[in-house]
Amino acid sequence: MLQRLLLRCPNWISPPLPTSHQLLPPSSKTPLFSWIPPAPAPPAGQPSSSRSHNSRPALRSLSCTSAGGGGTESQPLQQHQGMAAQDEKDPRLARISSSIRVIPDFPKKGILFQDITTLLLDTKAFKDTIDLFVDRYKGKKISVVAGIEARGFIFGPPIALAIGAKFVPMRKPKKLPGEVISEEYSLEYGKDAMEMHVGAVQAGERALVIDDLIATGGTLCAAIRLLERVGVHVVECACVIELPELKGRERLGDKPLFVLVNG
C-alpha cells in the first residue's frame, strides 16, 4: 500500500514557489527574501520518481498547517484545523521552503531526498525556522524538548534554550551510555526502537517532541509513548516538513502536530 502511494508522486523537483506561504500563528516580523532556483524538470517522457517512507520527496507548493491544542487552560496553544486564513500568511515560509534542497536518487535510486543541510547554510532561513517554533512555544510552561535522532538534534537544542527548557535526546538502540528505557515501533520492513536515559525526565513535566519531518509517524509515536510511560505530558509534536499523503498525522490520533511546510 505504501509503495503504491509513493509511485503517485507527480513531481521531479521542486517547482517555483509562491511568494508567500501560510503559517499558524501569524507573525508581525518582516522577513528578507532570497531565492534558490529550482532544478530543471526531467526530460519529456521520463517517469516520476517513487517515494519511500524515510525519504524527503520533492515539495509541491508548500504551505503551513497545524493541529492545535496541547496548552494549559490559562496558556492554551492556538486552536487551528486545516489551512490558515488568507490574512494569516507568513512570508518567512517562502525562504524556508526554497532553502530545502532536493537530491534525486538518494539514499537509493528513485528517491527524492529533502536535504535540510542547505537550510542550515542559510542563516536567515535557519533563524526563521527556530523563531517560528519559539514564537509558538514560549510561555507554554514546556520543561522538556525531546529531539528525535538525528535531525531533531539540530532543531531541538536552540528551541529548548530559547524557551527555558532542557533538551532530551531520543536515540536509536545502543547509542546512549547510561541506563535507558526503550520503546519498540514498526517499520515498513521490520522493527526499530527509541531509547531515553532513565531519569532524564520526571512525571508531570510538559514536553515538546520535535523532528525535521513526519512521514508515517512511527518514530513520533514511539517517542510519545516513551515519554508518557514515565508520566510526562506531551504538549505537542513539531516538524519542519510533513508528507500528508503518508497519513502520519492520523497515526498520532488526538496528539497535536504543528508543521511549517507540507510536501
TrEMBL record:
It catalyses: AMP + diphosphate = 5-phospho-alpha-D-ribose 1-diphosphate + adenine. One of its GO terms (cellular component) is cytosol. One of its GO terms (molecular function) is adenine phosphoribosyltransferase activity. Pfam families: Pribosyltran. Its main location: cytoplasm. The keyword Membrane does not apply. SUPFAM superfamilies: PRTase-like. GO terms for biological process: adenine salvage; AMP salvage; purine ribonucleoside salvage. It is found in: Cytoplasm. Residues 34-91 are annotated as: Disordered. Its EC number is 2.4.2.7. Residues 132-255 form the Phosphoribosyltransferase domain. Keywords: Cytoplasm, Glycosyltransferase, Purine salvage, Transferase. Homodimer. This is adenine phosphoribosyltransferase. It comes from Manihot esculenta (Cassava). The lineage of its organism: Eukaryota, Viridiplantae, Streptophyta, Embryophyta, Tracheophyta.
